[in-house]
Amino acid sequence: MKANFSSHEPLMSGARRSGTPRKIDGLGEEAYWIGDERMGALNVRHANRFLTISVGGGGDQETKIKKCGDVARIILARLR
Fold first, then answer.
1. Alpha-carbon distance 4 to 61, whole Å?
2. Disulfide: which of 22, 29, 44, 69 matches 51 by Cβ 3.0-4.6 Å?
3. What H or E segment, with its residue span, contains residue 14?
4. Tens of pLDDT along the chain (80 residues)?
5. What CA–CA distance (Å, rounded) separates 54 from 33?
6. How far is CA 36 from CA 4, 7, 32, in A?
7. Among candidate residues 36, 38, 30, 32, the one with its CA nearest the CA of residue 53
8. Exposed, middle or buried by CB within 10 Å (0-12, 13-18, 19+), for 8?
9. Which secondary structure element, helix H or strand E, spans residue 67, and what is its range?
10. 7-21, pLDDT tens digit by residue?
């Protein structure tokens, strides 16, 4: 059975505290950003692998998403 983010209750319960998950296209089979201006996490699923890359501190949310996406791409390339 194919897993999806909606089946990961702990992940989604964290999203309820930080707002609605934002779908990120072009990263793994499925990717979502959960966070705000202070902190956030990029959750990526690809095949049977699941990554969570979290970041905090200064900077705007778009910069955090881009940086986490760059890290996720490097990790996924090494896992293939």
1. 24
2. 44
3. helix 9-18
4. 454 555 555 544 444 456 789 999 999 999 999 998 889 999 999 999 999 999 999 889 999 999 999 999 999 999 87
5. 10
6. 23, 23, 13
7. 32
8. middle
9. helix 61-79
10. 555 544 444 456 789
Tokens representing 54 are: 């979290």
Confirm if 35 and 18 have CB atoms less than 8 A apart. yes
For the chain, what are the domain ranges? Answer: 5-79
**CB of 74 closer than 8 Å to CB of 58:** no
pTM of the model: 0.75
Q: Which two tokens stand for residue 75?
A: 């990790």
| Residue 11 structure tokens | 């992940």
